[in-house]
């Protein structure tokens, strides 16, 4: 089973990506991406899932059974590097998204089991942080971290400048231990300029899983287990939207020991 889901031409609903637990061979994370034209309306049923709708680029009005969020959005490209507008939708709800401009919409899903209300996640609600140093720096937008309420979903977006690495030093979250939680993960990649690509490797300690793939604009990489670093290519800045979920809604991970030194004072090394 390939870990790389290539971007498709929009179908009648505007959908360009669809990853389900069944297609990924796991139990929790689902991901869809849509390109809607101005004036188009998308209708979704959450069923037994909770949803996080992320306005990757463009303007929209969102309505659920109990809530109405008109006139959302401010960034017209994710590479404006401002936090997005998002909407949390509980399970057993329906949602209508009206594109007030051309719209790139991500639909993140995972099992819903509580009774949380639909809510707006505005840019001011998104935690912004810089991580890393040297050629391992990235900008992080914490849209739905484990410090905010949800049943299963964890959602974050990350910016990595050309020639840098991220999701690095290599780390994993594929066991239920004192140091880790089991979390499945998807990466939705975007590039500036859009013809760019990044290299992403997914591998385990015993190398029973060891794949390296070139992710292009709007491709999705699925991470069922193992380490999953990303390396950008000179000339192309990278954005990715991460969705994680598992049995326990907590992000705990362990570093691959060979590369953990990159976190230490020994890096970056003096030239």
Automatic annotation (TrEMBL):
InterPro entries: Deoxy-glucuronate_isom_IolB (IPR024203), KduI/IolB_isomerase (IPR021120), RmlC-like_jellyroll (IPR014710), RmlC_Cupin_sf (IPR011051). GO terms for biological process: inositol catabolic process. Signal peptide: none annotated. The keyword Isomerase applies. Coiled coil: none annotated. It comes from the Bacteria. Keywords: Isomerase. It holds the Pfam family KduI. Transmembrane segments: none annotated. GO terms for molecular function: glucuronate isomerase activity. PANTHER family: 5-DEOXY-GLUCURONATE ISOMERASE. This is Myo-inositol catabolism protein IolB. The gene is iolB.
